[in-house]
Structure formats: C-alpha cells, structure tokens
C-alpha cells in the first residue's frame, strides 16, 4: 500500500533483513522512566513470531529508507464471550518507528494495514500489550484506533544467582511427559483467559524445556491425574527458553545502578562466604527463561510454586547466558506472592488492550468490564 510517498509492504528477508536490524538497533525498547532495553534478534528479525501458527511482518519505507516495522500473529484461544468460548485472535507486536520519523502517522498506518490482514483471515479480536506509562502507545491504540483496556497483568523478573538454591526436603519435583502436560492443561485450564487451542504445539516446540509438578513428599503422583486423584496440594509450570530466540541488554541505567552492580560483584569475588547476591551483567547481551502455564491447587500449593521457581532458577544457573527468569501473571492471581522477583526489574502493571474486528461493539465493551472467570491469565510464550 502507498500513503503519499510512504510505502508499506510485506517483509522480505532477502531485501529487508539488514535494514530492519539497523532500525531495531536505533529504537529504544522499554519503560521510559526506568532502564532501557535493546533487543538483539541475532540475525532473525521475525524470531518473536515465527513459532506462531500464522504470522506476518510489514515494513514502511520513505524512498529508499526503511522507517517502520510491525509484526502480527494469529491463533485460536479462549476469550470469554457468548455464545462460544474460543475466538480467533490477532496479536500486534514489534511496532518500531525510526526516531526521526515519529509523530508522522506511520505507526497508525502500519497498524491499519496489519488489521486488514487480520480481517482477511477471519480474526475476531486484535490485542496488544504495552507499558501503562507508554503514552505514545496508549494514545495510538486506545484514542486513535479504538482499542479498549482489557487486563493489567504484572511482569515479574528475577535475576539468576549463579549459586544453586537448596530445595525443601519436604517437596518432590517431577517432570511430566509432553502428553501428560497437555492432558493436564486441557483438563484444568481451558477456561483460562487466552488459553491457546494449540497448546500441544507449544509444549512440543524445541524452545519449551519441559513441564514440572511439585507436591508434598510422602504423597503420590500418578503421572496425569487421569483417575481424578491428585495430591492434596500441588503446583505445575512450564519453561520456555526465550534466550534461544533473541537476546536483551540494558542500554542505559542510573549511575546508582551501575555503582551497585560493580560493588556487589567486588564483594562477591572477595568474600564469597557472605553469599551476597551479585547483580548479573545486564550491559552485555543476555538470555532469559520464561515460566508459563502456572497452576496450583491445595492449601500448601503457594509454597510449592515457590519451590518450583527455585527449581527453575537452578536450571537457569546451568545455562551460560540466562541471567533472568520472567513470568507474567494476572493482577489478582493468588500465586503472585509466591513468585520471587525484584521490584526494580519488574513491571507491576502491564497493559493489555483489545479490539473487535467484526463490529461486535457491545461485546467488546463488556469484555474489559467483566471480571475474568478464573484467577489465571495464560500468557503464550511465543508472544513474549
């Protein structure tokens, strides 16, 4: 499509890859009032969407200059709306505009073109995620494009200490077979918001490191709960190795943060017996694990979630460049207090916005106002 001298077209790896990578390097990503993250896609600009069932990337050009990009993906997932539970969802991500060409309407035109692709592929709803304090993004999607605020989950980030943590002697941790994990997710989480219908493909993806359950020692686990009997308290989660797709690094940070990082590393080196937790080096490229599909049942399940987080931490210590563990939970999820995280690295209120693609205004107005039917929100690791 052509808008004046602005041209929008589909991404072609042979023609556009180098210029898209250059644009990514010039665009700052992250909350403006805190540290700024840069993304290293390691030579693959579509790395964040290529594991989705359907995906597309658009680029915007002014003359010979590439000035903007946007990505989108499509899947079938749970959205609580009458008369059916499943909906076809289009996810908007990766909107980047060259710094010298912002506030010219390029972002608006890219989103509109991506929405045309959604409509052509029978998408029910489009949705996107942004930081609540990102005024430019909020103005674009809510005020100009008609998206409505949907949910405000929290992104919890915990640094990886290279020392392994000691797990409770009262807890058993077992790895599930993929078939067992899929059975449990479909049995227990199909009413969870945004639960993907192709969960089996996610669990079988090479980036999914596995699914684990934790329960009290002395009780038994039959491997799937197919007989309807579970331990009195238990918890489970899956782990996705996002660091295999792309890397992150901090582009700038307050002087106090830099000073604390250097001092903590010096103390850790000179006095290892103090077991002081040194801050990882976030100023060079690093990877991360993403925990997803968290579920818990029983009076002691909160502690078991904490045990599983420790287990994942110990896994991460064996991956050279994995420096943080990330998860995203609903704002009121009861498991949130049991997940370790650093407040300074986390985002207490991420903002999800949603828009009907089929003129279902009455439905879309009710969705943000309706409390979720479960306390959980399923965050697809392919969209992180």
Q: Could you please describe the fold and organization of this structure?
A:
Helix content is 24%, strand content 31%. With 384 residues, it is of the alpha+beta class. It has two domains: 6-152 and 349-356, Gcn5-related N-acetyltransferase (GNAT) (Aminopeptidase, 3-Layer(aba) Sandwich), CATH 3.40.630; 157-247 and 274-338, 3-Layer(aba) Sandwich (Aminopeptidase).
Topology, pairings included?
Elements: E1 2-3, E2 6-10, H1 13-26, E3 36-40, E4 54-62, E5 65-78, E6 86-97, H2 106-120, E7 125-131, H3 135-144, E8 148-151, E9 154-159, E10 171-176, H4 178-188, H5 199-204, E11 208-216, E12 234-241, E13 247-252, H6 255-270, E14 287-297, H7 301-316, E15 322-329, E16 350-356, H8 361-366
Parallel strand pairs: 6-7, 14-15
Antiparallel strand pairs: 1-2, 2-4, 3-13, 4-5, 5-6, 7-16, 8-16, 9-15, 10-11, 11-12, 12-14
CATH H-level superfamily of the largest domain:
Gcn5-related N-acetyltransferase (GNAT)
Strand residue percentage:
25-35%
Q: Can you list the strand order of the major beta sheet?
A: 1-2-4-5-6-7-16-8
Question: Could you say how many structural domains there are in total?
Answer: 2
Structural class computed from helices and strand pairing: alpha+beta
- Describe the oligomeric state of these chains in a short phrase: single chain
CATH topology annotation of the largest domain = Aminopeptidase
Named at the architecture level, the CATH assignment of the largest domain is 3-Layer(aba) Sandwich
Mean pLDDT: 85
What is the general shape?
globular
First-to-last CA distance: 29 Å
Count of DSSP strands: 16
The H-and-E topology, N to C, reads as EEHEEEEHEHEEEHHEEEHEHEEH
CATH class of the largest domain: Alpha Beta
Poorly predicted regions are: 262-276
Please give the share of residues in helix.
10-25%
Radius of gyration: 22 Å
The biggest beta sheet reads: 8 strands, mixed
């Amino acid at each position: 499509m052509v808008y004046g001298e602005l041209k929008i077209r589909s991404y072609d790896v042979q023609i556009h890859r180098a210029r898209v990578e250059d644009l990514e390097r010039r665009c700052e990503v992250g909350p403006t009032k805190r540290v700024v993250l840069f993304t290293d896609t390691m030579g693959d600009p579509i790395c964040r969407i290529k594991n989705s069932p359907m995906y597309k990337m658009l680029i915007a050009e002014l003359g010979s200059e590439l000035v903007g990009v946007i990505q989108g993906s499509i899947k079938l997932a749970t959205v609580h709306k009458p008369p059916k539970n499943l909906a076809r969802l289009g996810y908007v991500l990766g909107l980047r505009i060259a710094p010298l060409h912002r506030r010219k309407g390029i972002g608006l035109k890219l989103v509109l073109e991506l929405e045309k692709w959604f409509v052509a592929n029978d998408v029910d709803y489009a949705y996107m995620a942004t930081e609540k304090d990102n005024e430019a993004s909020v103005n674009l999607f809510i005020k100009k494009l008609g998206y409505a605020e949907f949910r405000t989950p929290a992104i919890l980030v915990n640094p990886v200490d290279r020392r392994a943590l000691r797990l409770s002697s009262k807890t058993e941790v077992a790895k599930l077979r993929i078939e067992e994990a899929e059975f449990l997710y479909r049995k227990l989480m199909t009413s969870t918001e945004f639960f993907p219908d192709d969960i089996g493909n996610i669990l079988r993806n090479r980036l999914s490191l596995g699914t684990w359950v934790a329960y009290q020692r002395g009780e038994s686990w039959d491997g799937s709960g197919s007989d309807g009997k579970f331990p009195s308290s238990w918890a489970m989660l899956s782990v996705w190795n996002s660091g295999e797709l792309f890397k992150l690094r901090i582009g700038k940070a307050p002087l106090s943060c830099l000073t604390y990082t250097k001092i903590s590393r010096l103390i850790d080196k000179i006095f290892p017996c103090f077991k002081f937790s040194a801050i990882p080096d976030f100023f060079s490229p690093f990877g991360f694990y993403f925990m997803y599909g968290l579920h818990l049942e029983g009076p002691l399940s909160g502690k078991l979630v904490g045990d599983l987080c420790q287990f994942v931490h110990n896994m991460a210590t064996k991956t050279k460049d994995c420096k943080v563990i990330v998860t995203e939970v609903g704002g009121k999820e009861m498991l949130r207090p049991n997940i370790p995280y650093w407040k300074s690295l986390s985002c207490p209120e991420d903002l999800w916005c949603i828009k009907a693609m089929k003129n279902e205004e009455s439905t879309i107005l009710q969705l943000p106002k309706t409390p979720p039917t479960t306390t959980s929100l399923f965050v697809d690791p392919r969209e992180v």
